Amino acid sequence: MASPKQILQRYSVIAVVGISRYAHKEAGHAPAEMQAAGYRIIPVNPHADVLLGERVYRTLEDIPEPVEIVNVFRPPGDAPEVASQAVAIGAKVLWLQLGITSEEARKIAEGAGLDYVEDRCIAVERSRHGLTKKRSASL
Questions:
Q1: Which of 43, 47, 80, 130 can bridge 19 by disulfide, Cβ–Cβ 3.0-4.6 Å?
Q2: What is the Cα–Cα distance from 27 to 103, expressed in whole angstroms?
Q3: What pTM did the predictor assign?
């Protein structure tokens, strides 16, 4: 099982399930921080069309490109379903944000070979380890 630091060093494409339309909320601020640090953010929210300058998808299954990390800003009761969707799309990591834990989601993710992080803020972990991604010249 990879550590949060290893995960953030290895992967750069993050689908954010439950990203907020409001920048002042943690579910809006943390993804923006990750994007500013060079990570590719793919927003997943059924109530928005564009967030952080990116097209918003309604579900993980709607995303037409590979996703490495599924970062979850949803209540713990939603985590098992998101875990199943993360497995279905071939994600490498399921990351539940600070305050979110789910034994069932853990079992689903780890049973399918995904790395699993819970109850940690992805932006705090990135900052703590001083990690950034280099942007491609084609972006």
A1: 43
A2: 22
A3: 0.95
